[in-house]
């Protein structure tokens, strides 16, 4: 791909919903990648802004005199704060990449502390239920699909698309199943390759809130999409993703663009603040321009966009999109999508799994920092302004995000804002790996969240965080493992034949063949390790 695949660097173009072309010109943003061969164009002054809002504030009206980027009014700074109407359930949350939803097994997922099960019926239609059998509360995600119906593996109760129970093996043959025996259902929509869920059980789904990304609908747009399960809170994850200042340091030489010597002051211009998020431009102070446009929209959609014009005058669009889902205290899941209307020829030489493992590496480089940050916030239980030292030249988006949490956090299960907070009232739920025969059988199936015998059920483990959620990487690991075993066996047989051979020429040929097989087995083993082994910083190795 023709752009940096560092998931922490926001590079995206996003529109909150589809708009007619008569009403809109897309805001764009691009990636600072020398391999693209393009020059950035700043379109801030001659381009119509999308996603217009009634309370749009110009950047010149924002007071950013405080070192922490506090740009609220004097009245608010004295203790009064604006509280927006917000209910976390009345939002669309990204569940999974459509291409990675298993065809033959249910998938257990969570939004905050709500456990869900997602599956495809016999017609390929997606359905989402509460992950709880009404009989004895067993997890339906531990069940199986039979003739397009979801079966609980505890007692064999089966449920069809609308949540109605259609089979109970334990009742008499002439008995009817009461209509009240059903599971709670959730509305799901597939849009632009992502499955979204509407969490409210009382308010009908609002199609206006379903995100739409203009660049992804452009002709010729291609993207590399990955999904990752991470061991820290979604708010800390979003902070990390909207923090371009850390990339040269934390991800030095991880990809083609991150270099420690490029760490510098940044420029920011906040152009929009609404009850649903904020947006603005940013760039490097040394460049004296702000060609990147960042937008955050509720509940947890972050994008960074840029346009580039090539030497022939053709305009190209590039997007880095981050779709975050809270999965409980100290846990989150992220869909990362980097793409553009033009790819670098160099990027085409690499297989997709290479970019996936590189994205995993980027998260592992930050994991220790973010996990410890999560622990401190939970321990101290004070607003972030009492803990953070935010700089205008690097942390503007972080301050904006925490202040947005001040406005809407009252409508969330818990939150840590800039000036206010509401810590979790219940302890975190620690889920253990399943046990018994069923777990042993399902361990080999990534669709079941199985982890196999080689991998511990730990969100710090790359296999558990990414591979089991990605059909492509799961297939790659299985294929390379099979080739490794086959080549190792072939090398053993060839060596044995070489020992038995009487001719020197045959001995040489067989030993050379065995050596080649061992080399292939080693290459396959290396590929498996790249997909399943965590990155470890050199200075931390024992």
UniProtKB/TrEMBL annotation:
<dbReference type="Pfam" id="PF08417">
    <property type="entry name" value="PaO"/>
</dbReference>
<keyword id="KW-0812">Transmembrane</keyword>
<feature type="domain" description="Rieske">
    <location>
        <begin position="92"/>
        <end position="197"/>
    </location>
</feature>
<keyword id="KW-0150">Chloroplast</keyword>
<keyword id="KW-0411">Iron-sulfur</keyword>
<dbReference type="GO" id="GO:0045036">
    <property type="term" value="P:protein targeting to chloroplast"/>
</dbReference>
<dbReference type="GO" id="GO:0051537">
    <property type="term" value="F:2 iron, 2 sulfur cluster binding"/>
</dbReference>
<dbReference type="InterPro" id="IPR017941">
    <property type="entry name" value="Rieske_2Fe-2S"/>
</dbReference>
<keyword id="KW-0472">Membrane</keyword>
<dbReference type="InterPro" id="IPR013626">
    <property type="entry name" value="PaO"/>
</dbReference>
<keyword id="KW-0809">Transit peptide</keyword>
<keyword id="KW-0934">Plastid</keyword>
<feature type="transmembrane region" description="Helical">
    <location>
        <begin position="509"/>
        <end position="530"/>
    </location>
</feature>
<dbReference type="Pfam" id="PF00355">
    <property type="entry name" value="Rieske"/>
</dbReference>
<keyword id="KW-1133">Transmembrane helix</keyword>
<keyword id="KW-0408">Iron</keyword>
<dbReference type="InterPro" id="IPR050584">
    <property type="entry name" value="Cholesterol_7-desaturase"/>
</dbReference>
<dbReference type="GO" id="GO:0009507">
    <property type="term" value="C:chloroplast"/>
</dbReference>
<dbReference type="GO" id="GO:0046872">
    <property type="term" value="F:metal ion binding"/>
</dbReference>
<dbReference type="InterPro" id="IPR036922">
    <property type="entry name" value="Rieske_2Fe-2S_sf"/>
</dbReference>
<feature type="compositionally biased region" description="Basic and acidic residues">
    <location>
        <begin position="65"/>
        <end position="79"/>
    </location>
</feature>
<feature type="transmembrane region" description="Helical">
    <location>
        <begin position="482"/>
        <end position="502"/>
    </location>
</feature>
<feature type="region of interest" description="Disordered">
    <location>
        <begin position="59"/>
        <end position="79"/>
    </location>
</feature>
<protein>
    <submittedName>
        <fullName>Protein TIC 55, chloroplastic-like isoform X1</fullName>
    </submittedName>
</protein>
<keyword id="KW-0479">Metal-binding</keyword>
<dbReference type="GO" id="GO:0010277">
    <property type="term" value="F:chlorophyllide a oxygenase activity"/>
</dbReference>
<keyword id="KW-0001">2Fe-2S</keyword>
């Amino acid at each position: 791909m023709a752009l940096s695949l560092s998931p922490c660097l926001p590079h995206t173009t996003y529109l909150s919903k589809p708009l007619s072309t008569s009403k809109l010109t897309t805001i764009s943003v691009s990636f600072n990648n020398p391999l693209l061969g393009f020059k950035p164009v700043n379109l801030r002054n001659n381009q119509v802004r999308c996603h217009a809002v009634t309370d749009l504030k110009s950047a010149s009206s924002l007071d950013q005199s405080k070192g922490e980027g506090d740009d609220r009014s004097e009245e608010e700074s004295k203790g009064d704060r604006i509280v927006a109407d917000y209910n976390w359930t009345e939002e669309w949350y990204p569940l999974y990449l459509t291409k990675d939803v298993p065809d033959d097994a249910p998938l257990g997922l969570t939004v905050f502390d709500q456990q869900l099960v997602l599956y495809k019926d016999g017609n390929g239609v997606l359905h989402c239920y509460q992950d709880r059998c009404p009989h004895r509360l067993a997890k339906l995600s531990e069940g199986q699909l039979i003739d397009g119906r979801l079966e609980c593996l505890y007692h064999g109760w089966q449920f069809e698309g609308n949540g109605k129970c259609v089979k109970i093996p334990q009742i008499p043959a002439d008995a009817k199943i009461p209509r009240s025996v059903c599971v709670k259902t959730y509305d799901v929509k597939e849009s632009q390759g992502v499955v979204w869920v509407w969490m409210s059980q009382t308010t009908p789904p609002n199609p206006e809130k379903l995100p739409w990304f203009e660049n992804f609908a452009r002709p010729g747009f291609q993207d590399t999409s990955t999904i990752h399960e991470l061991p820290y809170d979604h708010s800390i994850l979003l902070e990390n993703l909207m923090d371009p200042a850390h990339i040269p340091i934390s991800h030095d030489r991880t990809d083609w663009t991150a270099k420690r010597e490029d760490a510098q002051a940044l420029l920011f211009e906040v152009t929009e603040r609404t009850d649903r998020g904020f947006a603005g431009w940013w760039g490097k102070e040394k460049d004296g321009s702000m060609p990147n446009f960042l937008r955050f929209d509720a509940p947890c959609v972050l994008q960074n966009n840029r346009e580039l014009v090539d030497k022939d005058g053709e305009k190209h669009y590039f997007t880095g999109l981050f779709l975050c889902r809270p999965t409980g205290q100290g846990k989150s899941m992220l869909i990362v999508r980097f793409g553009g209307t033009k790819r670098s020829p160099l990027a085409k030489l690499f297989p997709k799994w290479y970019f996936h493992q590189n994205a995993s590496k980027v998260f592992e480089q930050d994991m220790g920092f973010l996990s410890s940050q999560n622990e401190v916030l939970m321990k101290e239980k004070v607003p972030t302004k009492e803990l953070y030292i935010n700089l205008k030249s690097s942390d503007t988006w972080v301050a904006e995000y925490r202040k947005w949490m001040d406005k809407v956090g009252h409508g969330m299960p818990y939150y840590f804002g800039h000036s206010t907070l509401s810590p979790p009232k219940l302890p975190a739920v620690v889920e253990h790996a399943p046990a018994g025969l069923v777990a042993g059988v399902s361990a080999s199936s990534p669709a079941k969240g199985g982890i196999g015998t080689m991998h511990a059920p730990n969100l710090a483990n790359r296999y558990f965080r990414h591979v089991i959620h990605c059909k492509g990487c799961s297939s790659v690991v299985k294929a390379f493992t099979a080739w490794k075993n086959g080549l190792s066996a072939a090398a053993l047989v060839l060596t044995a034949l070489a020992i038995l051979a009487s001719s020197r020429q045959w001995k040489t040929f067989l030993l050379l063949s065995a050596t080649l097989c061992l080399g292939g087995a080693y290459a396959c083993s290396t590929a498996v390790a790249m997909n399943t082994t965590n990155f470890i910083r050199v200075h931390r190795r024992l």
